């Protein structure tokens, strides 16, 4: 079993190198098999199609991203407000850099998103659970006043979706994306902040 997994990872590594150089559309299973010094028939024992390989590359990328973002959640002595801000900005930077490595990654990401949407949904769920964790921290410290952290995490994710793998949605430079992201995140955080009861009563009376 260990040997099987090692071979799969070797195939993934070879595929990443070829896809980065030639792109998804110009890569064949026969070429990948040759890169791995195995027959095409042997390659099919591990992956039934090129799309299956692309799916696994995407899944591993999403897992790595979630692990890096988990480090933001675990940082000690950081207010929840700043933790959420750092988390969302870090997510944009990580995913932007992932696609910026090579334009061929954008092609593959678009294909996987279209043909295997469940993979992206799995990645979104991992990140969403981390956002919910930050929101719960904010509730505990009194920074936030949120009734349903899971629902709110989902809405935050929807509001900031443009800034996750942003090249898939926009041709803006990183500087301009950061400017937009800061503005959107500020609006979200202002809406999440706990308000004093006197202020709430005053607003209701008006």
Mind explaining what this structure looks like?
With 206 residues, the protein is mainly α. It has two domains: 1-48, Arc Repressor Mutant, subunit A, CATH 1.10.10; 50-195, Tetracycline Repressor, domain 2 (Orthogonal Bundle), CATH 1.10.357.10. Helix content is 77%, strand content 0%. The chain has helices at 2-22, 29-35, 40-46, 50-74, 80-100, 103-115, 117-141, 149-159, 174-192, 197-205. 23% of the residues are buried.
Number of domains: 2
CATH topology of the largest domain: Tetracycline Repressor, domain 2
Number of strands: 0
* Tally of alpha and pi helices: 10
| CATH architectural label of the largest domain | Orthogonal Bundle
What would the principal axes of the Cα set say about the shape? Answer: elongated
- Please indicate the percent range of residues in DSSP E strands (runs of 2 or more): under 5%
C-alpha end-to-end distance: 67 Å
CATH class of the largest domain: Mainly Alpha
Which stretches of 5+ consecutive residues score pLDDT under 50? Answer: 197-203
Q: How would a crystallographer describe the biggest sheet? A: none
Order of helices and strands: HHHHHHHHHH
Secondary-structure-derived class? mainly alpha
User: Helix coverage percent of residues?
Assistant: over 70%
């Amino acid at each position: 079993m260990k040997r099987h997994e090692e071979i799969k990872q070797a195939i993934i590594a070879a595929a990443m190198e070829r896809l980065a150089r030639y792109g998804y559309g110009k890569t064949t299973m026969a070429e990948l098999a040759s890169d791995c010094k195995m027959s095409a028939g042997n390659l099919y024992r591990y992956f039934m199609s090129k799309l299956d390989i692309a799916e696994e590359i995407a899944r591993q990328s999403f897992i790595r991203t979630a692990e890096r973002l988990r480090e933001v959640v675990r940082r000690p002595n950081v207010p929840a407000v700043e933790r959420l801000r750092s988390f969302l900005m870090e997510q944009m930077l990580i995913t932007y850099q992932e696609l910026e490595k090579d334009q061929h990654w954008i092609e593959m990401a678009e294909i996987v998103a279209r043909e295997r949407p469940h993979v992206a949904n799995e990645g979104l769920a991992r990140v969403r659970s981390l956002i919910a964790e930050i929101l719960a921290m904010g509730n505990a410290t009194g920074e936030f006043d949120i009734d349903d952290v899971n629902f709110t995490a989902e809405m935050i994710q929807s509001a900031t979706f443009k800034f996750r793998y942003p090249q898939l949605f926009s041709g803006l430079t990183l500087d301009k994306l950061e400017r937009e992201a800061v503005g959107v995140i500020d609006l979200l955080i202002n809406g999440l902040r706990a308000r004093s009861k006197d202020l709430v009563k005053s607003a209701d009376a008006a």
